[in-house]
Amino acid sequence: MARLSDLIEEFIKSMINDMDGAIEIQRNELASRFNCVPSQINYVISTRFTNEKGYYVESRRGGGGYISIRRLNTNSAADYIMHIITSIGDKISQHTCEVFINNFVDYNIISNREAMLMRAATSDKALMEVPMDRRDDVRAMILKNMLTSLTVI
Amino acid sequence: MARLSDLIEEFIKSMINDMDGAIEIQRNELASRFNCVPSQINYVISTRFTNEKGYYVESRRGGGGYISIRRLNTNSAADYIMHIITSIGDKISQHTCEVFINNFVDYNIISNREAMLMRAATSDKALMEVPMDRRDDVRAMILKNMLTSLTVI
DNA sequence: GCGTTATAATAGTCAGAGATAGTCAAATTG
DNA sequence: CAATTTGACTATCTCTGACTATTATAACGC
């Protein structure tokens, strides 16, 4: 049986996605949407939207009160990636490409496995079929495309 | 006379088969189906669904709790990938490529993020710089290279 | 008008009840 | 004896509700 807390968590997360990383909700409104007591919302927030999980929560009581939830890091990771994408020109060598990829691993933006996939896709070995003088162009496109896919979440 | 534990083991295994390698059960429900105490389920799991025997078990207590059992792909994942690699010819269309990638996700061989990276690297968009009549060759090489990298880990 | 005091509208806390699963050792079986 | 079965006790997660805390706004007294 699906837990109510999980449903609420999902709902909030998709709201956050829709709203580009930050939302402001009203506890009672959300509770009544899910037919639960308001304190259940606190439970969900305190167990699922913690700091360690990358969220920052603020709230205010009284008339016009609210709970705001912001997703941390994710956006700055996306920003960082976007920055790198724009800094990559029309061409990139295999070596420079690897430097970038290693940086992403260092910054915890991608996992080791993901790094291996990216290296594999941009290696000279993979681009053997492409004439040498066009390889760095193709590589740049592939790398940019992969990076862009990461910013979509 | 067949021991109860063996019956439960068989039951779980056939469920896993029916469900393509992964199930989620409720301890109490299963116990009452076999008219035994709940802890018997733990016994069966700890003696028959161990890591060495190729299973991965997770559980959660509390309301809506569950026990999930997954059959590991261990070496067969690498075997499966190698098999796919050899079955990919010198050319592959974007569409066929995506079918493969989606299958890998379904078989838990790659994560969703990894799938996105692979799609991004093999899309026509990424290969724009490559002349149309060479694209499927380059794509095949990139895909094979990425797949090979996965077997190394 | 201005400061003070209710009132209403929020959100927070915490402890207890309910719903699961885990552990371990004694009893049983074959 | 080794494997299985059982059950009492424990651990963990979820849900609920009573009580508390905070804030905005309206009402009041001067």
Report on the architecture of this protein.
2 copies of one chain form a homodimer. Chain A is mainly alpha-helical and 153 residues long. Chain A folds into 2 domains: 4-71, Phenylalanyl-tRNA Synthetase, Chain B, domain 1 (2-Layer Sandwich), CATH 3.30.56; 74-151, Transcriptional repressor of class III stress genes, C-terminal domain (Non-ribosomal Peptide Synthetase Peptidyl Carrier Protein, Chain A, Orthogonal Bundle), CATH 1.10.1200.150. Helix content of chain A is 59%, strand content 10%. Chain A contains 7 helices and 3 strands, in the order H-E-H-H-E-E-H-H-H-H. Chain A has helices at 4-18, 27-33, 38-48, 74-87, 94-106, 112-122, 132-151; strands at residues 22-25, 55-60, 66-71. Chain A has a 3-stranded antiparallel beta sheet with strand order 1-3-2. The two termini of chain A are 28 Å apart. In chain A, 25% of the residues are buried. The model of chain A has no long low-confidence stretch (mean pLDDT 92). Chains A and B meet through helix 6 and helix 7 of A and helix 6 and helix 7 of B. Chain B binds a DNA duplex (30 and 30 nucleotides) through helix 3.
